[in-house]
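On clarity, I found the account of how folds are encoded harder to follow than it need be. Since the whole study asks how a given chain folds, the encoding of that fold should be made plain. For illustration, here is how one protein appears when written out as sequence plus structure tokens:

:::
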Amino acid sequence: MTRSRINEVMAAADEMIRHYGFVLPPFAYWTPDQFAAQKAQAGRIIGSRMGWDITDYGQGRFDQMGLFLFTLRNGDLADLQRGGGMCYAEKLLISRQDQLSPMHTHVIKAEDIINRGGATLVVELYGSDDQGRFARDRGGVVRCDGLERAYAPGDKLKLAPGESVTLMPGDWHAFWGEGGDVLIGEVSTVNDDLTDNVFVEPIGRFAEIDEDVAPTHLLVSDYDRWLV
């Protein structure tokens, strides 16, 4: 993705988030220079990879396959492993109309995916085999707003604003907006986007960036390069 396109996506996402009554935290609006000046105090933000995240999964087709994310808070894997402390994470996502977030699962993370506003969120589901691998012939059981719901392989849940689904490790899922763009909330256990996303297809998690203009704000994938 070009940096200019990423800047445009950020601006549009911020407008949509505000439209639905959410406001991002102050660090979201730091310039790269402001971030660098505060990096000593922002160690938790940097280490937990909180912040802007815009991806086309390395495929160069953001409108067809991509996702906007902002990690608002993120806990510590060591806390999760010992069973106490900050074991949770929270994100805001935007799935555009017919924009695919491709089929994947997580090894560690359990998550609630919540339609916070906009159009219908479609979540396509498959189960796992006995080794946790994608199984085109297996379904499973999820919870939708606390109620158990069995799914057959390939079932598509349609979540209206206010509705949610709880996904556990081994629930393979893809999602997109139907009829318009969707603002999504994600509440989960500790999030590790570097290692805990397992895709069916051999694709990347982050975008490769063409630096055609300066960044408005840094992405989480910029931290290692821009904040050294």
